[in-house]
Amino acid sequence: MKHYDAIIIGFGKGGKTLAGELAKRGKKVALIEKSNQMYGGTCINEGCIPSKSLIVQADTKEYLAAVEQKENLITKLRQKNYDKLAQLDNVDIIDGTARFVDNYTVEIDGQKTIFADYIFINTGSKSVIPSIQGIQEAKHIYTSATIMKETTLPKNLAIIGGGYIGLELASMYARYGSQVTVFELNERLVGREDEDVALEIQHILENQGVQFKFKSRVQEVSNQNEKAVIHYSQDETRYIDRFDAILLATGRSANTADLGLENTGVQMNERGQIIVNEYLQTDVPHIYAMGDVKGGLQFTYISLDDYRIVKDHLFGNKTRTIHNRGHIPYSVFISPTFSRIGLSEQEATQQGYDVKIAKLPTAAIPRANVDGKPEGILKAIIDKKTDAILGCVLLCERSEEMINFVQLAMNQNMKYQDIANHIFTHPSMSEALNDLFNI
Ligand SMILES: Cc1cc2nc3c(=O)[nH]c(=O)nc-3n(C[C@H](O)[C@H](O)[C@H](O)COP(=O)(O)OP(=O)(O)OC[C@H]3O[C@@H](n4cnc5c(N)ncnc54)[C@H](O)[C@@H]3O)c2cc1C
Ligand SMILES: NC(=O)c1ccc[n+]([C@@H]2O[C@H](COP(=O)([O-])OP(=O)(O)OC[C@H]3O[C@@H](n4cnc5c(N)ncnc54)[C@H](O)[C@@H]3O)[C@@H](O)[C@H]2O)c1
Predict the structure, then answer these.
(1) What is the mean pLDDT of the chain?
(2) CA distance 214 to 269
(3) What number of other Cβ atoms are within 10 A of residue 238's Cβ?
(4) Binding site members
(5) Hey, do 2-125+252-315 and 329-437 end up sharing a CATH topology, with the first three levels equal?
(6) Considering the domain 329-437 in this protein, what is its CATH number?
(7) Which atom of ligand 1 is nearest to the CA of 333?
(8) Is 426 considered catalytic here?
(9) Do residues 59 and 31 lie in contact, with contact meaning Cβ atoms separated by under 8 Å?
(10) Which residues of the chain have pLDDT under 50?
(11) pLDDT at site 194
């Protein structure tokens, strides 16, 4: 049985970065990945990169050409990710599904067994398949991973779930020309955002042709003449609609089922996510978990920051933890992009802050007009007592870049006046922050 200094299970962002770091420090590393189509992990092969590639091409390309370009891109990136680690003498990339035998030993595809002093679980997450009658047998049912591989644009697309994935793909498919209907259990979109923001997002997507069915519960899916049929209820009334394809976007669950964790001391919560302490150690101190598999925020940059925490815990002064990451923004790549950081107005009020609210329509930004993209709003939540920035929402083109500036300001404890008086280039989208914070 071969011994390694470290075994990393899963080729995700945190794990692959850690593999390179450990190898650089002279450690012998085994990186186990269950699919040779997943080198580089979800982000590169099934998540961020393919979705953003299709999204940015939506206004300029036919669907098939865009899918081909996306496939070329991810094939290139997958190979690059593989080569980067495979070329290192200290790293063995092992193809196969890893399963724990005990706290130190891992079996690959039930055949090869290896052991290590440290083990890092970075197995990510997968689409939840909701318990809807017929869902396992019906045809034309997709997850985000499978639908983006299809070369034919669905003329009529149903999306079950109006969260991040649902909205990004609704906006994208609508812009390629699909007739998109989103079925959402809740009475409105993005429940954790303020109502004015959620309504603005809804309005923008409706203008792109997306239809929403709120408070709708899908009870059954079936097939009829090559169509996928959705049986759903709204306010006790039952309806039936037919589509070319149904996309399931009802959340993602941790990939822990086939890890054999019952053979270890690693504990999971009721949602099957691995329980970790602030340094990402599981209940077995030499086994760590990084990225989506431990629950919490599911973003590539969180998995990367998990790597930084683990590195600091192993080789640094152990000051980085999951509690001192600073404010974490996120962006949803509808068109225009929706970005958010910190507290919403509602959350700030519930937490007892006396708030000042600043709002600016995107149409007031010179650059947005130059670009012909005037839809959206910007909103800032300020603490009246301290002038601190509590939160910010940017619903405008390039907000995925702008929000990082607001993040830096918040992490540096700047006052809102610092942004109001900052010199930005012109004509840029960022200069809108001068006006937004000029209250
Ligand atoms: C459609 C979509 C769009 C997204 N867009 C964004 C975005 O724009 N920005 C953003 O930050 N995040 C986005 N995300 C989320 C992001 O992709 C994830 O948060 C991130 O990839 C999680 O990385 P990870 O390190 O946890 O592991 P992953 O990248 O998920 O890697 C886990 C790897 O482990 C392998 N594996 C699983 N079980 C085993 C096993 N037993 N043995 C061996 N290997 C195993 C898997 O095959 C996989 O390759 C998106 C996700 C989706 C689905
Ligand atoms: N831009 C980004 O960074 C980005 C993009 C896409 C995904 N992601 C990551 O992927 C994760 C998963 O995304 P997601 O959209 O699948 O999950 P989500 O949790 O964001 O949204 C799921 C939605 O489905 C609804 N829902 C659940 N069950 C339902 C049912 N049976 N019928 C109808 N509606 C139902 C929920 O009310 C919710 O609105 C996100 O949390 C995010 O971290 C990130």
Answers:
(1) 97
(2) 30
(3) 11
(4) 52, 123-125, 161-168, 184, 251, 292
(5) no
(6) 3.30.390.30
(7) 8
(8) yes
(9) no
(10) none
(11) 96
